[in-house]
Specification:
By secondary structure, this protein is α+β, with helices and mostly antiparallel strands. It is built from six helices and 22 strands.
């Protein structure tokens, strides 16, 4: 993989064969995904505003790229990135870990789209073009085009995220989950919409949201209300809760309430990028209620062991749980 090809891909100048080559290269390992994340983030920052003075832009890009090394050659990225400078209206708010980005931007009046993909074990803080903020948890996906020429601000979403939407009464914000749409004007809410989970959840912290469903009347949520949709049966319910279980993860806390360990294990796999094996069927049925500080995997595993009759063995990324 050459630096030149990476830059062509980022700038939208790569042909279909070259795009496939880069995507295959990225998918070959988690290390390459993370490295591409760093490269892509720098690229986006380089194209934040084409009105910036070239000398200022050059100085800023050199500062950013000076901290990045291309893993394939173990050297700094060349400054040829400026040759393919693109105009991108996405602002990335850096956090301790970041997802990686695949953008298809076209010159002209049809600006294409941006996809944000957050691997397991990572989180990403994003500031959208309208100033709205999104915190994405591991194994999540967000896709959107520019909001500038649209009557609606629309994004496609899968995974787990916390949205803080900038108020704009003239342009509603729509989150498409595949099973239903969430329509808001300005508010703070949580969404869990993993494709392999049977339950899809929306929790409203502040403001007001409208759940739009194809075969049912729309449902409105007030603060502290939860909408749960069961994918297999099509059943849904609206509940009021008095705790912060759905937003604790944004503060570094894993909170569960009345979940089996089999259900909780999905959270652990996504948060720490691990594979969980159950040594016996009994361990799956342990029911948990409580909170664990989300510090590191070993601390969480020891907390589970201490608080229950479950033990574990860890071998790299594989963790086996079994009854004591």
């Amino acid at each position: 993989m050459t630096n030149e090809l990476i830059f062509k891909y980022l700038s939208g100048q790569a042909n279909n064969k070259e795009k496939d080559e880069v995507r295959v290269w990225i998918a070959e390992s988690d290390a390459r995904k993370k490295e591409f994340s760093r490269i892509k983030n720098a690229w986006i920052l380089a194209g934040l505003d084409n009105e910036i003075d070239p000398e200022i832009k050059e100085k800023e890009i050199r500062r950013i790229l000076g901290k990045i090394h291309f893993s394939a050659k173990k050297r700094s990225l060349p400054f040829r990135i400026l040759k393919y400078a693109a105009v991108v209206t996405l602002i990335v708010g850096f956090s301790a870990t970041l997802g990686y980005f695949i953008s298809e931007w076209q010159i002209g009046q049809n600006p294409g789209y941006t996809e944000i993909i957050v691997p397991k074990g990572e989180q990403s803080r994003i500031v959208l073009p309208d100033g709205s903020r999104v915190l994405l948890n591991g194994d999540s996906y967000l896709k959107f085009a520019s909001f500038s020429h649209s009557k609606m601000r629309k994004v496609s979403f899968k995974g787990e995220g916390f949205f803080q939407i900038t108020h704009d009464s003239s342009r509603p914000f729509i989150v498409e989950t595949g099973d239903f749409n969430i329509k808001v004007l300005g508010t703070r809410f949580y969404v869990s919409s993993y494709p392999d989970d049977s339950i899809q959840t929306t929790y409203l912290e502040k403001g007001k949201v409208e759940i739009e469903m194809k075969e049912h009347n729309n449902i409105f949520l007030k603060p502290s209300e939860v909408f749960e949709y069961e994918k297999n049966s099509g059943k849904f319910q609206k509940l009021t809760i008095n705790d912060t279980r759905f937003t604790d993860w944004t503060k570094g806390i894993l909170t569960i309430k009345g979940k089996t360990f089999a259900e909780f294990s999905k959270t652990l796999e996504r948060r720490f990028n691990i594979d969980i094996i159950f040594g016996d069927s009994e361990v799956k049925n342990h029911v948990y209620t409580g909170s664990i500080k989300d510090e590191d995997l070993n601390s969480v595993l020891e907390a589970i062991k201490f608080a229950s009759s479950i033990n574990y063995k860890r071998n790299g990324r594989t963790v086996t749980f079994y009854s004591k």
